[in-house]
Queue: 4 jobs
Job 1
Amino acid sequence: MTNISSSKDKNEDSLNMDEINFNLLIKFINRNKKKISIISFAFFVLACLYSLTLKRIWSGEFQIVLNSGENSSQVLKSLNNSPLSSFLGDNSSNLLTEVGILESPSILIPIYEFVIANKNLDSKKNKLLFNNWEKNLKIDLEKNTSILNITYEDTDKKLILPVLKKISLAYQDYSQKNIKRTQELTKSYLNKQISIFKKKSLNSLRVVQEYALDQDLIFFEPAKNSIAINQIESNLDLKKNKFNKATTQDQLLLSNTGIIRSRINAANSIRRIDEQIKKINELGDDPEKLQYIGSTIPGLRREGLPDALSNLQNQLAQRSTRYAKTDKSILKIIEQRQILINLIKKRAIGYLKAEKLEFEAIMKASMRPKGVLLKYKELVRESSRDEATLIALESQLRFIELEEAKLADPWELITKPTLSTIPVGPSRIKIGLSGLFLGFLFGAVYIFYKEKKSDKIFDFELLNNYLSTKLIGTIDVNGLEVNNPKSAYCFEYINKENWENLCLINIGDFNKETMIKISNKLVPKNKSKKYINLVFSCQELKTYSDSDLKIICISLGKLTFAELKEFNKYFNLYNYNIDGILLIED
């Protein structure tokens, strides 16, 4: 025999279906499919009716090319590679930034006010706020392009194209406004810089002039730097025309670096003259060497002294071949030669000393304090740089003024504003299906809540979790014949058992007449020794506690957990051993 489980470990939460069982869910839906279907259909009809009351939403769109950075760079392309670009900033605009600006209220507020005016909405009682209206406008930038897609949706079909045209015009005006603003800022910057560098250039030029006069230097003339300035003006690029130390600055300071060379040359000449005087004094009376040295001194050559010495030498050579050394003519020539040698030496030393005095004067005149030429060189370089920068700024200002005179092309429309031929919303099919789904969800939740609140048991699996006993079978009230396949096993099972008293315990809302009819069918008429007792209340259990066979009769949906719990207390009280469960289908 099977005992009824009275374990307290089975908490009541499991009986109340707190744990979701997929199989129970399927049974629940199948059991209540008619009710759920009715509620779902009702919601579907209501959703369809609601969708018919909604205004249709129409859509329009156009595409525009953002030439962002192209026109601006065209205005300032000459500045991109120059040092001035660091002051003017990066001219290539960020497309995402441009899109953000186009979505800003500063651009869209006039369009919004146009929509409000055409919809005849009271500005004070207007419920169409800007943030809500802006949701109707979609601005998307195509990936890896500068093409902007603009889509506008509205319930007023006639208003869409005018709004799109106003948006396109506003965007095109903004594109030109951006260029004009860039030109204005650039001109303002250049004018300020020109004013600064005019003063700076004049001041640096004045400093160079005063310093040159003070130090007896040759004054720097800007005209000498005309080549470099012309290159700057033509290229508008300061980086490529810096005054490099090896070329331009040497040209600018060529006249003043000649002073240094003059002093060096004078010093070298003085050293050379000292060496010549020393050599003349060391030569003694050697006529040949004196003749050579005399030929190197222009003053002696002009007087003909070296040539006279050469003639005496020739005469002496000729007479020496014919006369003796003691001959009067030879001695006379030798005496004349000695006089001429002494004269040449004296005159040569005199000429050299005079030349030395001249070079000493040159050397003294070319002497300057240390650092004078270096400072002059620095002043010249600074003045040249200021002058070149001023010319470059003035040239760029003329370029900007020329560009300003040109009319820049606005952003190009790829497609004209077009209106869709069919409405884009609301989708009545989606609304209807959404209503159907909500109806199903609501109906299922509502019926589940009602079942749970009723505390009734609708599934045998829940009952079996509480009563640990077997199911004998199912009896159909409308088919109580013994030969009915659905009830045949129950009849066979009950009649096979060896019993005299059968106790049918009816738990739930049962019709007594129906149960009497079932009990009469369970036992054949020829078995008169078998008795069936029907129990409908807990108090009657004590009377039939000695029955040979005890079977619980239940009908799903007519039995509550409270009733089952109450009967279970008496089962434990009277030590009832339940032999099985008989399921009655009505």
Note: The longest helix spans residues 157-214.
Job 2
Amino acid sequence: MADPIILKVAVPVPLPGLFDYLPPDGVSTASLRPGCRLRVPFGSKVLVGVLMQLTAHSDLPRRRLKAARALLDTEPVLPPGLLRLVSWAAAYYQHPVGEVMEAALPALLRAGRPVFQPQTVYLATTAGMQTDLHQMGHRAPRQAQLLAAIRQAASGLSRADVAATAGDWRGALGKLLQKGLCEAVSRHPNCSAPPVASSPTAGPTLTAAQQQAVAAIGAQLGSYATFLLDGVTGSGKTEVYLQVISAVLAKDRQALLLVPEIGLTPQLLARFQKRFAVPMAVLHSALSDKERLDAWRRAASGQARLVIGTRSAIFAALPAPGLIVVDEEHDASFKQQDGFRYSARDLAVLRGRHENIPVILGSATPCLETIHNASKRRYRHLVLPERPGSATHPEMRIIDLRAHAAQHGLSTPLVAAIGKHLDAGSQVLLFLNRRGYAPALFCSGCGWIAPCDRCDARMTLHRARERLRCHHCGRESRVPAHCGNCGEALKALGQGTERMEETLQSLFPGTAVARIDRDSTQRRGSMHRLLEDVHAGRTQILVGTQMLTKGHHFPGVTLVGVLNADQGLFGSDFRANERFAQTLVQVAGRAGRADRPGEVLIQTAYPEHPLLQRLVTEGYTAFAAAALDERRQAQWPPYSHLALLRAEAAARDAPLQFLTHAAKLARQIRGGGVTVLGPAPAPMEKRAGRYRAQLLLQSAKREPLQQLLRSWRASLGELPGARRVRWSLDVDPLELF
């Protein structure tokens, strides 16, 4: 084969495949390595792409190929294992590889910023080292002082270090440079890192089940295996992570911990910092571009031994990976819901296989696909059945709202229980997965309910801001004083977290109530401050949405009240029961995590509902077994594989017309075993002023579906009506909406 002269480059454009370029002028082939960035011409623009392959051949004549403008890196910014992951993800999720690459790189690197910004340091020259500082001090004391400091810094003194010295440092530095007593040298600095614990704390004594889990995972370090760590809430899954990570760090390897929510990151980081005297990096979407680049640099340089992050951290560049942990693996936030629609949990398993390292999937309520994989022995199932120490499982009871009157969403038995637990010096958590003051503004005269004019949805009343807001598109409007139809006064209908906070303050005056939802935690650091008040005992009642269900530890909470279980009992999506069960079990698990027994009260108007009864009497494991049997009979995942084609447009008919052509094409090219369902309008057809429809593809096996998608997706953009709609393909969709 001739010397490779064609560059296959992933360019950040919404087009499939790699693009061919000639090497930049003056750059040797030996300098061109996969994973390096290139500045390349694309149409009228110059973009930053990533070199994926070198080859001797192109489907285009050489005369039609353009040369890359510049090579930006001397070393690959992405290691080989991560390049393989990106390529696989682009192919599996049917997404342009250049846009997938955008998920793997911080924004500043995508813009061409150097991986490591060179830093100027000042070193003493031979003449400077031989200078008599005592004599120099009589003539130029400031220069002598600065030269002494430079001589003492073996690796050089940075400009910031020089500026930190007292006096006229600029003039003194200029004189030293002019006399040849010091010189300026450009170097790549070590990445700055947060301070590490000076005296890490020891962990608690492990239970027998924890010891077995740590031993089983530890035996696989240095080889691939995926473990389902299935532990009841409060059973010490995090302690297992800590022990295994300790063994990974002892082998001088890196560990990656994925968490579902940004709000969990500070408390986890604090816990890990107490245990490990190693540099760490945090990666999540709330960071500024500079903060994200700094964290990425610490991970990519190997300085950060532990990387904690949300979904996108699965693409962190790790030179020495040793372990991947996915905490709360069941959480839907691990699936990206727009753009490049990937599952970080599934990619974690694949990356573990590529890197030949173990993967831990931890949850008290594992998703049904994960349980199925464990039953098929694709994953090893480790169970933590009990809470450590004297902590016990909370007692769960149902309150029948048909037999007990409720005022403002609180039944008499629940109000009495709240008072009892508060009198005992405990804290109370109330779960209501509905933010705002009230879910509807209602006219009792004519029945009008305030609608969103851009969605098939009602507006939610937010009393604190005196605004109506649509929680689907973000539309806001003022609160009308009277009904526009009949002139009658309007009433707030139903309860949201804002109204529940007001009710609790009225029922329990003098008791500190805190609300945790997306509205109350918008400002940076607000979530951390609210949780600090809870842990310090300054808050007695905590009311909030599902943000409270995700991994939080509240040792003072002994009562959990689920205010409206009926919200989750009658969903139309085939995953609705699973999501409800996970949420209920997770929020119930916040009670009784210390030495005091916990109690869970569930308000419902349907106490005989079989799902609710099974969860309360038999637990999540029994629910999962029954739910998997139902999925098997109905041939829903994990017993089949799905892909969902969505389309939306400003005109009602355009999405259905496009999807009708797409369905016809899919039926023409499909292999055996692929079923085409639809098209049909989305359950919420109108959202944000656009009409939506969808087309579902289902297959008992993954490969026939992938084969169809490869040829089908390449033709979708050429179908009639494709340019009149915005369409997207979602492989393994979590929500059929």
Note: The longest strand covers residues 674-687.
Job 3
Amino acid sequence: MRGLMQDWPLVVHKIIDHAALYHKGAKIVSRSVEGSLHRTGYEEIRVRARKLSAALARRGVKRGDRVATLAWNTWRHLECWYGIAGMGAVYHTLNPRLFPDQIAWIVNDGGAKVLMFDACFAPLVEQIAPKLRHVECYIVLSAAGDLPKMKLPKKPIAYEAAIAAAREREWDRFDENQACGLCYTSGTTGNPKGVLYSHRSNVLHALITAVGPAVLARPSDVMLPVVPMFHANAWGAPFMMPMTGTSLVLPGPRLDPPSIYALMESEGVTLAAGVPTVWLGLLRYLEENGLKLTTLKKVLIGGAAAPLAMIETFEDRYGIEVIHSWGMTEMSPVGTMCVPKPPLDTLPPAERHALQMKQGTPVFGVEMKITDDSGRERPRDGASVGRLKIRGPAIVKAYFKGAGKSAFDKEGWFDTGDVASIDAHGYMTITDRSKDVIKSGGEWISSVLIETLAMGHPSVAEAAVIGVAHPRWNERPLLIVARKPGCGCGAAELLDFLSGKIAKWWRPDAVVFVDEIPHSATGKILKTELRRRFADFRLPA
């Protein structure tokens, strides 16, 4: 027997429809590429998105076509997502931090028919345009008067001119499983792989994260997603915030600490999301200038492990709640949130902060387990570690064009490539990426834990741990440190700082100081580069 409920497709343009009708008081403030602040609301975003659908249809875009976007977080980029998806086409985000040849490869692999880009990326687009095989139309996200001079195979069109010449177009009708967005993984160990989101998965992800254990946003909140829209759906913010009626503050290209701080204070931001490197920079800026965050209440940290010192500083010094999160492009992307829940919500501060270093418990809709290399499930005892596997309605079941088939098993589980433990309360802790794990004398050492503890030293700006060859133990941990300006701590001081916090045999055999630690295009520590750089490093006898 089937239920007798209406068939109401879960499509993303229903989100902006809802926001336009019922959240007219919400504000969208953007830092434009030109530098000025732009103010709008969900009602106007909807109107302009529907005009964009008409403008794209006039230029031959059809259902299923990919429309690439190379843009920062602005109101125009938000309009692009809804305008593209609302006509049944697919927004295809491009990461400008990748190498030009890699961006061109992604555009070609995705088969984008149109490329929409911020004017500041004109030199980059001019460089890759001769290599783009499918692009028929170039649209610059600017007014006609700000159109840059550039040489392209086709004359570029100003976004505002295209919008002004179009009438609102009704949204298309299609199944909720229609493709909606295409985002590529960072590809640090090979060609990037495409993750093709559906309308259904994006709507479910927004619902799931909105009602997750952190209860992220309400209509009275103001959210600043520092995480860019070209990085894993901006963690779902462009869909979740209109759904919940939360105001949005979009930082544009200016992600430096002074600019982020100024926006937070001037616009009354209560919730912000970003990777640890962003928050390390902001905290350093606050400390150096004796500043406070007067409106911020919650900060969502993901993309890499949050150091204990960062959690303590936000909560103890500034009174800001830290929500440690974990996810992947393949998960739309949020998978877990770390919030102390009964019976752990009454822990003393030191124990609560230790708990918050874990990646957290799965949000509803994410199944999770750890297994050994043979696929046997390992105990949820907080001590056993294994390969982290997941499945759920907003998790990839296959990569675009069939790449990476070995990551999926017959039961639908996706192997994340992470090594983790899960405790009796369901809190998951990432101990390493499987390719980064250090195996010393047959035992696993967590580089992630050593890094987060080392960053608790007041002189350490950032730390990374890799395994280097050892004649007896196969490999041993090497601690690589970038010191804060003006700090001169030595190796012995850092190793003493770690003593008592980790097992003796986990203690790094050596410390190397560098000016800067390399990062991937998504802000993660680039351990492939560190392993290459220190391939010939010899540990002291």
Note: The mean pLDDT is 93.
Job 4
Amino acid sequence: MHGLMMHDQLLVSDILEHAAAVFPRQEVVSRSTEGPMTRLSIAALRDRSAQLAAALARLGVRRHDRVGTIAWNNQRHLEAYYAISGMGTVCHVMNPRYSPEQLVYIMNHAEDRVLLIDATFVPLIAALKPHLKSVEHVVVMAPSDAQPETPFEALNYDDLIAAEPADFAWPSDLDERDAAGLCYTSGTTGNPKGVLYSHRSTVLHGMMAALPSVCGVDESTVILPVVPMFHVMAWGIPYAALIAGAKLVMPGPRLDGASLFELMDAEKVDMAAGVPTIWLGLLGEMHKRGRTPEGFARTLVGGSAPAPSLIKAYEDMGIAFQQGWGMTEMSPVGSISKIPPQMAGESDARKLELKAKQGRQVFGVKLEILDDDDRLLPHDGEARGRLCAKGPWIASAYFGTDKSPLTSNGWLDTGDVATIDADGFVTIVDRAKDLVKSGGEWISSIDVENEAMACAGVAMAAVIGVPHPKWDERPIIIIQPAAEDPADKDRVMAHLAGKLPKWMLPDDVIVTEALPLGATGKVQKNVLRDAHRDHLSGAA
């Protein structure tokens, strides 16, 4: 027997219409690509999104077509999010930090018909355009009076929408399972793979992200998504903020510590989200100024695991530091590290240990650890296995390919090795491909990196396993010194010697000016492994 409730579709356009009806005067503040700040009410955001949808329809865009975006976090990009998905087409966000070859592959694979770009990326598209097979129109997301010169035919965004009415009717006959967004993974081997989000998955993920146990946003929240809108749909924040009525502050292209500090201080941002490298830059600016931005109370960090030393530095300044974990295939949020009330009395050291874990699964996600035969392992904090996930916003397949990310019993294999304890806290031991196997013993690169990051004068650290004639593999560590009082090899080795057992100590420390970072801000360990493959070949 079924319940007697209405069956109403969950659609992205419903988020926008709800926000315009309930929070019409709430602001979206944006630092534009051209420099000046813009301010827009949610009611005006709704109208401009409708105008863009009408304009895209006039250009011939039809249901299920893909419309690509290469843009920063700004007002026009937010309008595009809602216009493209709302009209029944697919919003394909692309990371400009991909290689040109990857971008060409992605756009051709997705068969994008229209491309919306910020003016910053005109030179990039000029180089790529001769290789793009399906793109019919390029629209530069700029004011009418700031349209840049382009070596290809391009439309101006504001001119394009100016001729359209704001009464575009969002299609009501969409199926909530229809595709709404498309984001390609940042894999280090082979071509990127497309993850195709549905309206249903996007709305459910946005509702989850707004919960008090996750982002905890409402009308009183001023939230700054520093995480780019081209990185897994900005972790769902553009949807969660409008669901809850929060004020959105968009940082544009200027993500250095000084620019972020000024913006956060001026708008009294109380919650911000981004990757660890961003918070290292802001930390340096806060130390330089001797204070935190006014109102700044908490941050959500993801993309890669933050070092405990970074967590402690923020907590010592009175800023709550919350780690989130997930991946492109998970929309992306899977777990959040938050101290439960019953653990509030734990020691500071224990609470720091908990905050450094990847946290507990959010509602809607099931997390388990599996052995090599896809059997469930116990949640005892000791058993290590492949971290796997299920849920309504987790990918079951990749776009345009027969390749499946699922295990034999239907779980998404995340590629991480982890433990789960009796309280539900997930601890990622390492990426499966980053574990170092030395003399039959497994060494976690994350454990060694975290200890190295606690050494004075170390800004970033990466541990890799390299071939060794006796032990098969041994760890070496590559460090990027801090600008002030930079660490050297001797200081790092002396620090680690007091923290790690001898067999875990790296065989060498390499100092580099800058670690190679990938498109999403993660250290490219594959690049480091290729560069240092023979580093210990002559070791005894």
Note: The radius of gyration is 23 Å.
